[in-house]
Amino acid sequence: MSLDSSTRDATLRALQAIVGDNACLVADADTESYVTDYRRISRGKASVVVLPSSTEQVAAVMAWCHTHDVPVVPQGGNTSLMGGAVPDTRGDAVVLNLSRMNRVLAIDTVNDTLTVQAGVTLAAARAAAEEGGRLFPLRIGSEGSCQIGGNLSTNAGGTAVLRYGNMRDLVLGIEAVLPDGRIYSSLRGLRKDNTGYDLKHLFIGAEGTLGIITAAVLKLMPQPRASAVAFVAVASPDAAVRLLGEAKRLSGGAVTAFELISGPALDLVLDYLGNVASPLAQRHDWMVLIELSSGADAASLEATLLEILESGYEQQLVQDAAIAASVADAQTFWRIREEISDAQTRTGGSIKCDVSVPLSRIADFVDEASRRVLELVPDARMVIYGHMGDGNVHFNPLRPKDADAKAFLAQWYKPVSDLVDGLAHGEGGSISAEHGIGAVKRDDLRRYKSQVELELMWQVKRALDPKNLMNPGRVLPAMGEGG
Ligand code: MLT
Ligand code: ZN
């Protein structure tokens, strides 16, 4: 179904009256980047793309859309890997993009909080914290474009969860506009507040299906005095887990990141980057990137890192290691890790599974899932990487070099992702550790959530969004009427 032009004109006129003509986009050339997802796997249609600049404008847009039954797709930096931030192809939805709400509202270095509008990019939030001599610890590769509202809506994770937690752990208060235009405000910087249901958590991880987050109070942490980074070849996924145990034991809580990288993942990213060499002299099947950070000075932190690596050698967990000798080295190690995602997007033909299992099961899971996938697709490149310290790996079998990307995905996406997700689920794991559900995984939820969980999700949805106007067709699998 596409929207008739009189309804679209009425929507446009009404929204222009709220936000001004320049903040409403309708021409295809102008809306293109707002309706196409980050990985360019889906291209939807919007009746209008609206860019409000205040919470009051968001509230007025939402109230109008609610009265006139117009669906709304909330959007931040549009970096969702699950197609959660772009509209479907019906063309009746308004895309409400928060980019113009990009002001840092306050920093309180006594309370250690940073209050921002939802459209502030993660990089800008981190910079504002740093200017105040503090750390906002969420770290993800897309920090230059992803926004705090989207980070909250997807409960973003990234590379420092092991130390600091997910976005849900890093927020004290939010402001959100409800589907009918009412404003829910709990922009308070309280670390203790047991006054009934903690409603902010409904909106965190809801991917814009219950309302639109417009501002947040974020937790700030002390800046570590020093960090130490190593790129380490390990004997196996099991050796990696055991090395992590050693690192935790010997560093007394200084392990900030512990990222797994498979041989094919490193091959792919080095090929993509072109002018960057592997930190290690030889090719290895498995590597980890370890970062320690703490209030200790640089020399003692490096001594701790060496002690961890020596213990790893003695136990035959570690095969080789490169310790970053400078900030530039550490940045290169991290660049190698963080660019794996874009390397896959550019290569095409990647079966993206984002699974987590208990840390005690992750090594067996990686071995078993690799074996089973290679039985199915013997020449797949096993691009496996990610946040092993959280029990979360991006398990992304990639097409063989000479295979056509589209044909490969058409044949293998479903059987492989079903296999990998099923194995993770069987280990008590999750089929989406940190990327969310969006459009891509929505129907899979029916298999992996219990009937009670699905019913509760729909009950919450209907309580907050009875007209099912918020990001429709995302997250919640259809369940009869209303779905
Ligand atoms: C990452 O860890 O690099 C991100 O989650 C992105 C991705 O896996 O593609
Ligand atoms: Zn990740």
TrEMBL record:
Its cofactor is FAD. PROSITE patterns: FAD_PCMH (PS51387). Keywords: FAD, Flavoprotein. Residues 42-223 form the FAD-binding PCMH-type domain. The keyword Flavoprotein applies. GO terms for molecular function: catalytic activity; FAD binding. GO terms for biological process: respiratory electron transport chain. Gene3D superfamilies: 3.30.465.10, 3.30.70.2190, 3.30.70.2740, Uridine Diphospho-n-acetylenolpyruvylglucosamine Reductase, domain 2, Vanillyl-alcohol Oxidase, Chain A, domain 4. The keyword Flavoprotein applies. SUPFAM superfamilies: FAD-binding/transporter-associated domain-like, FAD-linked oxidases, C-terminal domain. It holds the Pfam family FAD_binding_4. InterPro entries: FAD-bd_oxidored_4_C, FAD-bd_PCMH, FAD-bd_PCMH-like_sf, FAD-bd_PCMH_sub1, FAD-bd_PCMH_sub2, FAD-linked_Oxase-like_C, FAD-oxidored/transferase_4, Oxid_FAD_bind_N. Belongs to the FAD-binding oxidoreductase/transferase type 4 family. PANTHER family: BLL6224 PROTEIN (PTHR43716:SF2), D-2-HYDROXYGLUTARATE DEHYDROGENASE, MITOCHONDRIAL (PTHR43716). This is FAD-binding oxidoreductase. It comes from Cupriavidus cauae.
